[in-house]
Amino acid sequence: MTTETTVPPVSELAQTSDNRIAVEVMLDYLALPAPSVTARPDAVYVSVADVDDLGAWLTARGGRVHVHPAGDGVELWTLLTSSPERADGSSVPIRVSAPVPAGEVVLGYIVAAVAA
Description:
- Helices cover 29% and strands 29% of the residues.
- By secondary structure, it is an alpha+beta fold.
- The protein is elongated.
């Protein structure tokens, strides 16, 4: 008789914790602004104060920026990036968001990262 061992799927809580730890470790050696960090099973969400902070993340981690109207003359600029690759080849998706007044002048390298 053959006995198969099945590995149960990772629970959402364990995945959330794993994502949080991976990003915290990254932040220990990359001095990036991260005043608000929320870990979820799908990604880690970081809220920063302004578009300059978003630029620091873009410079350090790369990625694409999406811009969406947030209402009342404000846009939400979100960088889609990820943590460094782990030993198993995986990485954690990171979403870094900053509120920006509509029409605000934004540095060219950040504008260049805006997804078409």
